[in-house]
Structure prediction request, 360 residues.
Amino acid sequence: MRRILFFLLTVFLLAGCGEKAAPCDPHADRRVHDLHGRLLQLRDKGIMIGHQDDLMYGHAWEYEDGRSDIMEVCGAYPAVMGWDLGGVELDDSCNLDGVPFDKMREAVAKADSMGCVITFSWHMRNPLTGGSSWDLSGGNVVREVLPGGSCHDIYKKWTDRCIIFLKSLKDAQGNPIPVIYRPYHENTGGAFWWGALSCDPEDYIALWKWTVEYMYASDVHNLLYAYSTDIFRSGQEYMLRYPGDEWVDIMGWDAYHRPQEWDFLEGMAEMARTVSTLAEEHHKLAAFTETGLESVYMNDWWTGYLLPSVRGYGLSWVLLWRNSQKMENHFFAPFKGHDSEDDFRKMIDEEDILTVNDII
Ligand code: BMA
Prediction:
């Protein structure tokens, strides 16, 4: 009997110390559980390569079925595909970068059927001023958005519109498509109305919790939640706006290579180490949620900068930002004919860098 009790106690303790094997939404859909389990498994295999708006447009083209700059360079689609919801709040037919939401819905279903992991950011407009998400006028807008604030009703309406879109994402069997939801990103930075210059950590955390609760109350259960900062200087700064383990599935950060502003290799080693340690302590997945060197003007950027910055930290993915079809120099991934093509392929050929072909 004592032996059985000892055995049960050991199992109980081990389970308590181990990875939290479930999404934070207590009523997460079956496919969200599957995605969470898949991410845990894939983490041991390598780092998935991701690209924003990959299937929608690329350098000098748009909306051509099957096209993808990444695929044209290395023969495989990225494993992670990102989209942005900015504009959904106003019921616009296109997002802030001109992507029609109808095309986005179709592309998400296609990406899902290909086995890709899907992630959403939201460059939401400023609900107080009606300006863009970069409009910082209006003071502490986050406080106005919270219950009792002057924009709470608008914020609810905007969230309702986002919910309608998220709920409309269905696979061929009619099941909700599981997606990684990454709102209020780059929170340590000052660019957005929810950023560190515009609201206190308490307001930010209250916004996060209210929103997640609202998602649950609205019966949205196809999400994993990703928290992401901008560049940060310490673990303490990273955690300042962290809402708590029961509200987050993935810990991430965004950091763009701007050589005149900071040393990428040095800064990245520090940030990757910090996020990976924190994620381990909090039993969360970790990801490098946005990056790039605009215009990729260093031909060895992939193996010389990105690869050493992401390898060895247990990161699930790295998402490269978009290749604009309209702004000639606004691209963060290579395209056919770009000078960094060979180096990109060299990185992709590494065993621990995963395209969609490596995860299905
Ligand atoms: C920024 C730029 C903008 C774009 C925004 C949202 O980083 O790419 O051109 O509107 O992201 O996608």
In short: The first helix runs from residue 2 to 17.
